[in-house]
Amino acid sequence: MSNATPYDLENEKIISEIKSRGVKTVIIQAPDGLKAHLKDLWMELSSAGITVYISADPCYGGCDLADDIGRKLGAEMLIHIGHNKFVRTAEEIPTLYIPAPYLVDLSELIRRSVEFLRSRGVRRVGLVASLQHVHSLKNFVEGLRSKGFEVVVDDATGGVVLGCNGEAAKRIAGSVDIILHVGGGDFHALGVALSVEIPVYIADPYKGEIRDVERLKRKTLARRWWAIQEARRAQIFGVVVVAKVGQFNRDLALLIKRELEARGRKALMVVAEEVNWERLSSLTFVDSFIITGCPRISLDNQEIFGKPVLNSEDFKELLKVMEG
Amino acid sequence: MSNATPYDLENEKIISEIKSRGVKTVIIQAPDGLKAHLKDLWMELSSAGITVYISADPCYGGCDLADDIGRKLGAEMLIHIGHNKFVRTAEEIPTLYIPAPYLVDLSELIRRSVEFLRSRGVRRVGLVASLQHVHSLKNFVEGLRSKGFEVVVDDATGGVVLGCNGEAAKRIAGSVDIILHVGGGDFHALGVALSVEIPVYIADPYKGEIRDVERLKRKTLARRWWAIQEARRAQIFGVVVVAKVGQFNRDLALLIKRELEARGRKALMVVAEEVNWERLSSLTFVDSFIITGCPRISLDNQEIFGKPVLNSEDFKELLKVMEG
Prior knowledge:
The structure is a homodimer.
Chain A: H1 11-20, E1 25-29, H2 32-35, H3 39-47, E2 51-55, H4 67-73, E3 77-81, E4 95-98, H5 107-119, E5 124-129, H6 137-145, E6 150-153, H7 167-170, E7 178-182, H8 187-195, E8 200-204, E9 209-212, H9 214-231, E10 236-242, H10 250-262, E11 266-272, H11 277-281, E12 288-291, H12 296-301, E13 309-311, H13 312-323
Parallel strand pairs in A: 1-2, 1-3, 3-4, 5-6, 5-7, 7-8, 10-11, 10-12, 12-13
Antiparallel strand pairs in A: 8-9
């Protein structure tokens, strides 16, 4: 661990992997929040005579690999920081995944979690975490058990949740009172909350606070239902294929197109590297969009979208609503 | 021309090209302002049994081809609307360029131009236009000549200017008093103004007005000089390769890196699909950026950039300033 960053970027591992493969040029990808911490890694690699490209594009997950542009640049290896392997098919260039755990001590946050859960009368706690914090679950388990809580972590997933996958919470929700998510921001915790019926709290390592996501969950679900109801009246749908390698679902998009056409609607196939309202809104003649890439794009941006935007799960609901 | 759009999208030509090639799937690309006008083309192609993908990503020029994603989607042809061929090397898939001329009658704008130029005492007028309006230059020439003006249009370029290329103005600037640019917005006219020393006026077909770009030119040049002067103090430079096919200049970027290192500076290679301040600003440890893609990115966004951002022409000036 470098003094400059609270994340373990495993510089030694990266350098030894690069050297053992005889690689001269690499491309590095990281989520925006981690980019500021890439200085030491870059400087160490440069001193070792490696040419380093850093991707400035946003990177939201392991679904989003800069392997194609890496190949174009002549990079022989992709260093993908902050996420685990997600794309199962072969990558364009060999890829090293660096999870970048957050190394700051969380004893004080564990103490606060105990206090908070006691004040809520909770007995049985399910634990999940985003990838940067999953190594801390061991300490959370010990800390909570020592204070008399029953604590469950899902074995199969190790407790890790992704933005699009709350499996680690779903699998244990039946046997606990609440889910405690260890991680910053609301993004991952909202994903968890949307996949279970029980309350979800956030233990936030950056703010040092415990908070819930119920209000955000209710708002998100309300907007989701508004979008589905509104989409019923749409005549022209834009079915969006997202170009990112792990979000590319052309065949699903073509299937949705056929389903729409079978119901007398028109479907325009749309493709985008990056999906946001600025881009979709230029297609003024489309009444509603269905995004076949990341399911969170529609859930998290409904307030910004000027038209109903659905994901493929929402589309299934829309079909029911259309038929009902 | 369809009733719905003032641009000639040449639907018949597109459809006959597609049919004669036996193409079943196409991808269409257009600048944001033209996307709203793609409905008829899409519907005609759909009726003919063609699967159509429309790219929702912004498209700034012929340098920016969605051929790669088209190939991934299985498209056998790219319809690129609003620009001429720019990339000289072979495209990934066969590409049809549709210039999309604006078909609205401009006689009133020509009348206003005559009035305006007379009031300024102008005698010799050089004419240029953006691609959508270049077909109107013939009428401008006739209209102005019939009122006694000397009028010059560059033969070699036909008077067309691109955002990055004011050649059509440069070649005639020595033999006229002013340049009149026919086109909307300030973008193309600013490019023209930056490439010549004489006054540049805009005849705007959308607003129906004549205006100058002198203030904008002075502001832009002042900010450019600020950026070059500031960059002199930078220790860590980010040298940005832009991934767009016609802006991809890896070798130039590597050359700039070597030039910087020869002067004791550090250079981080950066790559981006799309360059904006949000993306560059995540690299907090970089003091100044040099963009090797579109030269307009740095010129047009200097007010938004929080650090000095140069293009490769500015970089040449920076080297002089460093040595001076």
